[in-house]
Amino acid sequence: MQSSFSLSLSSASPITGRSDGGGASSTASDLFFTTATTTPSHLRFCGLRREAFSGCKSSSNNALLLKQLRPTKKISASLSTNGTPSKGFDYDLVIIGAGVGGHGAALHAVEKGLKTAIIEGDVVGGTCVNRGCVPSKALLAVSGRMRELQNEHHMKSFGLQVAAAGYDRQGVADHAQNLATKIRNNLTNSMKSLGVDILTGFGAVVGPQKVKYGKTGESGTVITAKDIIIATGSVPFVPKGVEVDGKTVITSDHALKLETVPEWIVIVGSGYIGLEFSDVYTALGSEVGSANPFTFVLLIVSQVTFVEALDQLMPGFDPEIGKLAQRVLINPRKIDYHTGVFATKITPARDGKPVTIELIDAKTKEPKDTLEVDAALIATGRAPFTQGLGLENVNVETQRGFIPVDERMRVIDSKGKLVPHLYCIGDANGKMMLAHAASAQGISVVEQVSGKDHVLNHLSIPAACFTHPEISMVGLTEPQAREKAEKEGFEISIAKTSFKANTKALAENEGEGIAKMIYRPDNGEILGVHIFGMHAADLIHEASNAIALGTRIQDIKYAVHAHPTLSEVIDELFKSAKVISASFKQSILNPTLETHSRLV
Ligand SMILES: Cc1cc2nc3c(=O)[nH]c(=O)nc-3n(C[C@H](O)[C@H](O)[C@H](O)COP(=O)(O)OP(=O)(O)OC[C@H]3O[C@@H](n4cnc5c(N)ncnc54)[C@H](O)[C@@H]3O)c2cc1C
């Protein structure tokens, strides 16, 4: 099966030094001062950074704003010339694919003074902006509000009275598409304003340090580059036997257009994409029986049925969080499920017949059931988009479609050797198929090609599922941590806090949720943090930054959090952890030493 929301990371390499080359001992304060006194080049934005600059109508406005915000020297160089290429090359860096990974790499490359071009065969922004994170979060913003407005009990507990909530399907769909268009323009403008050459066409590697681009079937233009990054992303993975018609059997690409809200939809796959869509469908319901086209007050809550090949729903999550998520996000909603089954044949609705889904037992392969429903959403993961890239010209073979790379995103050839000057980032390498991971990998590669070694610590990259409430995580799940602990011979401990004890959450009547941390009691290392609850996706960053910077619990527990805020859930988590102090450890080794404080 293709990987999608991979929590079992293939690389667990430690972060090496700070990305501006300042060595491993950087602190938050020296990062802050470096940033504030020179240029924002050290800020680690994700792929959508610089949107703030791109709201301006013209690039001259952008240039003006950038000049005000950043020192003139670097800007003028990058704005006017986009760097001067290394001798003998058209560009220092050519990136194939202008998704968030390519975009993040391009912006960082310009900051580093590299002459940079990006090749895009479709539209700038790739999956995230056009068919992924951005439109899906727009739909989820609507589903969150609908859910709240429809919850009479919740409203009453605030003393609020709200008339029956309704929605205009096309209005919701437009909100998602308009947001995608806005962010796409922002991305394009941010690259243009910095002088990145945006080349249109399909790109392919034609030899070492050589790329061709142009329309498919035409001879194209060959350009040379000192370094090349492949950032060609992924497409929905559709298993054999599934016939997608785009209307009744759909992928996320179609679902995000929200052309219909089916009364009964099967979602094949209960990863984060399937789960987010279940949140949207069950909140919106299908619009029926409306007398007035602008107030769809009569809603039938859509029925969602999950079909999951593994024995449990949400297999990628920490099991305890998965159980809680099931209790809150699945059981009380109009959702049922079949686990341990494969959908072997899915036929779209036609000739008055419904969508049919044939299920077999995942283990015995015996036929299990046939479902007849209004629609099916195939959310079985993502397949890398790496065909036609000319990889054979540099002796590279894909593995299940993914481009093999090492921990520095350097491409590995069929003999296991590194291909000089060729990198692959983002969904196309399959390490961690998330927008901010793609961008971070791009930034890491640019650091390397501009002369500073950098290895991204994938275990510090957070992930989130934007259901209501949200789920977020960073690092290892409890079973993964237990396995590692057993192999490497150390103990682990678990700390937990509840949203029920948090003033802000209770003020919002959103006390459902927990935060859980897996850590080493012997040295205070944070191994993983998992949050289920309101704004979990925002709360995770304190933990992910702590992991990225190597901050230990005994230090971060003294950080001060504003009251009353949800961040106190994480504060409590750190404070409740029991780390064995050095003096206590010493006293165990040498029982004659007196210990005052055993736990720090
Ligand atoms: C419904 C959905 C929701 C998601 N939600 C989230 C979320 O909330 N958070 C999150 O982090 N991630 C989310 N993701 C995942 C995220 O979208 C991807 O991980 C991310 O887009 C990967 O970025 P990328 O740069 O590797 O590739 P892409 O964004 O796929 O971009 C690749 C680009 O390369 C272009 N291209 C491909 N081949 C060529 C070629 N040969 N020549 C020229 N151009 C080429 C493509 O046209 C595309 O523009 C979601 C995905 C989906 C489907």
UniProtKB/TrEMBL annotation:
Q: Which InterPro entries match?
A: Class-I_Pyr_Nuc-Dis_Oxidored, FAD/NAD-bd_sf, FAD/NAD-binding_dom, FAD/NAD-linked_Rdtase_dimer_sf, Pyr_nuc-diS_OxRdtase, Pyr_nucl-diS_OxRdtase_dimer, Pyr_OxRdtase_I_AS
What is its cofactor?
A: FAD
One GO cellular component term noted in the UniProt record for this chain? oxoglutarate dehydrogenase complex
The UniProt record gives the binding positions of FAD as 137, 203, 232-234, 427, 433-436
Q: Listed GO molecular functions? A: dihydrolipoyl dehydrogenase (NADH) activity; flavin adenine dinucleotide binding
The record describes how the cofactor is bound as: Binds 1 FAD per subunit.
Task: List residues of the Pyridine nucleotide-disulphide oxidoreductase dimerisation domain.
Answer: 461-572
Which residues are involved in binding NAD(+)?
A: 269-276, 308, 381
Gene Ontology terms describing biological process: 2-oxoglutarate metabolic process
Q: Identify the catalytic residues.
A: 563
**Disulfide pairs?**
128-133
Pfam families recorded: Pyr_redox_2, Pyr_redox_dim
Q: Which key words tag this protein in UniProt?
A: Disulfide bond, FAD, Flavoprotein, NAD, Nucleotide-binding, Oxidoreductase, Redox-active center
| Domain FAD/NAD(P)-binding positions | 91-442
Could you tell me the superkingdom of the organism this chain comes from?
A: Eukaryota
Membrane: is it a keyword of this entry? Answer: no
Query: Where in this protein does the record put region Disordered?
Result: 1-23
Record Gene3D superfamilies: 3.30.390.30, FAD/NAD(P)-binding domain
Bias class Low complexity marks the residues at: 1-18
Which family is this sequence assigned to? Answer: Belongs to the class-I pyridine nucleotide-disulfide oxidoreductase family.
What is the name attached to this protein's record? Dihydrolipoyl dehydrogenase
